[in-house]
Amino acid sequence: MSPRKLLWLPGLLAVAALGACGGDGITPMDPSVGSPPAVLSSVTPIFVAGNPDCADLGYDFGFKIDGTPVDGIYYLVNGTQNGISTVLTNGSPSDPGNSVTISNATATYFDWSSTLGMDAVIVKAGPNANAYVYDPESYGDTGLVGPTNPSNGQPYGTSHVEFCYDYEVDVSKTANAGYERAFDWEIDKTGDQTELTLSAGQTFTVNYQVVVDTTGFVDGGWYVEGVITIDNATPIAATITDVSDVISGPIAATVDCGVTFPYELAAGGTLECDYDADLPDATTRVNTATVTTSGVVGGGEGTANVVFGDPTVLVDECVDVTDDLYGALGQVCVGDAPKTFDYPMDVGPYAICDEYEVTNTATYLATDDENDTGETGSDGHTVLVGVVGCGDDFGCTLTPGYWKTHSDYGPAPFDETWDLLADPDFFGPDTDFFLSGQTYYEVLWTAPRRGNAYYILARAWIAAYLNVLNGADIPADVLAAWDAAKVGFETYTPLQVAIWKGKTGSVMRDEWIELAGILDEYNNGLTGPGHCSEDDSSAD
């Protein structure tokens, strides 16, 4: 109801104070005019003296049912240009989209419902009328009745009914709230070695680990956008002069209807307007669209709540992770974090004896889609490498476990020192080992069953031999042990050593075990030039 329609109410209320219902009491109802309804009207009627119509009450449109209303459907017709009411007949509809239905009608009472919101209903009975005023508009009511006859305390019979209404556009809207969430990342790289001593030509496998994780996120870029829908469900064209949208705060939105105002929206027509606004935070707000009109078709408002849920845009949601020496490691997204990458890399071989720094850097980069900022971060790990065994440099020693895994049979990278071991028919690990009937490679991989001293000494002897070939210096006492063992291998087979019996055999076995101990100390760096670094694949 527009404010101007309320101007007449104070005067009517003053009239009502005169005793519109008349008399001091109510006498029994005359059966000829109908019984009171079980449910009375939802509003208290206002007494209006004389014969008012909808124009007198300030409404743009109205229609009248002359005489006592009877049950049925009444179709609305347009009001005249000056807004006075038009008599309605229960005949062919001129506005079939809107109608009023009368039900339970008697000479004095009736119920009503309508497809169009009504602002008031005037019930004329006797010399005066009752006005039922609805704010907000109503689509139906029960038990409407005219003024009471003061002479008998009963309602006058209804002489006519007039429904008062105006036309307004219907305004509805959507409100789609959104914001972006930008993630922060970190990367940490470690390695299982920081310092290595390698012989010339030696490789060492370093195991690296890279952990990538998010450190949090920052929300921002809050906004709301949507569509304002203006429906002119009236039979008259509406002149729209402005469409605005305001979010509580207040914050004015930008509205684009694609037309120039004033704009005439045809009867039954629809106009859609896009709107959007930036917001300072994720507070829940109310969004109100207001349509202003000129002419007999009024404007209206539509509201929607601005409620934020999950972020609509994820910034830097995923990162690609690489290692500058290893290559691509993979991608990590928020749902996978933290994620760990484990990978090995070989250090070496080096042909020149010197000190080296091996630094490799792991990097993350957020460039997965158009929402990413290109955020990047990195972390590196450095291994200090000392390479010995060149020229006057006496090198370092390696264990049998290293040599048996670094032949051309693997599984570790091939150490070319094996190629220095040869006989006329074979070379490298396939060289025959004295009287054993096996190759050097096979002897290294043969476990000394039941403590067979042959294989215990042979494994240590082969490792010492390869260490010397690799450039490691050998002390005199170790060389003497190595020579003594060689004489034993040129004399005995593994089977002969395995079945040594008696006192003599026991003494010889102890001597072989002692020689193996001297060579093992050398191979492990406890004597001599010192031990080279070995990776896990060299485990004996």
Description:
It is built from seven helices and 29 strands. Mean pLDDT is 87; it is low at 10-32 and 78-94. Helix 5 packs across helix 7 (502-523). The chain is 14% helix and 40% strand. It is mostly beta strands and 540 residues long.
What's the β-strand tally?
29
Q: For the record, give the distance between the C-alpha atoms at the N and C termini, rounded to a whole number.
A: 96 Å
Sheet/helix structural class:
mainly beta
What amount of the residues lies in strands?
Answer: 35-45%
Which radius of gyration do the C-alpha atoms yield? 51 Å
Shape by Cα distribution: rod-shaped
Keywords:
Immunoglobulin-like; single chain; 29 strands; 7 helices; 540 residues; mainly beta; seven-stranded mixed beta sheet
Question: How do the strands and helices of this protein lay out in sequence?
Answer:
Blueprint lengths: L8 H8 L29 E3 L12 E6 L5 E4 L10 E2 L11 E5 L6 E16 L2 E17 L3 E2 L4 E2 L2 E8 L1 E2 L1 E4 L2 E16 L3 E5 L4 E28 L6 E10 L3 E2 L1 E3 L6 E3 L4 E9 L6 E10 L2 E2 L1 E7 L6 E3 L2 E6 L3 E7 L5 E9 L7 E11 L10 E13 L11 H6 L34 H5 L8 H17 L6 H14 L4 H5 L3 H22 L17
Parallel strand pairs: 2-4, 11-22, 13-24, 14-29
Antiparallel strand pairs: 1-7, 2-10, 3-5, 5-6, 6-7, 6-10, 8-9, 12-15, 13-15, 15-20, 15-27, 16-17, 16-19, 16-21, 18-20, 21-23, 25-26, 25-28, 28-29
